[in-house]
Amino acid sequence: MANFFQSSIGKKFIQAVSGAFLIIFLTLHSAINFFSVIDSFTGKFGAVAADDKLFSAGDGLFKLGCDFMSTPVITVIVPVLALGLFIHICYGIYLTICNIKARGGWNRYEVAGKGAADSWSAKNMLVLGIVILGIIFFHLTHFWAEMQLQDFAGAEAQNDVYLLLTATFSKWWVLLIYIIWFVAVFLHLSHGFWSMFQTVGWNNQTWLKRLKVIGIVVAAIICLSFTVTAVNAFLQGNGFLS
Q: Which of 44, 74, 200, 242 is deepest in the core (most CB within 10 A)?
């Protein structure tokens, strides 16, 4: 078993499994965040009950989604998914650097099989990984540090998630940084989705073509959800919507 994980196939298998964690993590978060956009259309944006109870009747859909993320089961699952995301990015950077050293210098991102390395994303996964990882730390200072970290520390966490959302995205330069992040995530996912299935054996030409299309659709839905959420919060925070 140890030899398997030290082999080229084993290393790519680790990336494929951790990549699945990444997709689940992003799908869950993009769905919860998009609830704030729905709240804008239903007039519930900013609706937060005076009490601190979970699932209060006066809360907006986004607040209810954040309450769901605070339930015991999800509280355990989310750090596991986040760890998978962190491992995926860091391990991917490590493997790419090892490939560069093994080849004696910079070369395109190494992926196996037909249809590999046929896009800008495939050739620049290291660059995308660094951009994504860097902005993740920027993101954590805005939300995780104000909510989950406060809970862990026993301090009072920010209860008005709408205020936290608008306070973050009301600045145009912050919105721009996040949009750059979402574009990088899209490019990473659109390649990584089909590459993940290729690693576990779904690499015949028929399925590879289908998975490439599915990967683009999945990546687009996730990243558009994040982008629309951020733009909506920017408009709300600057008084363009009411």
A: 44
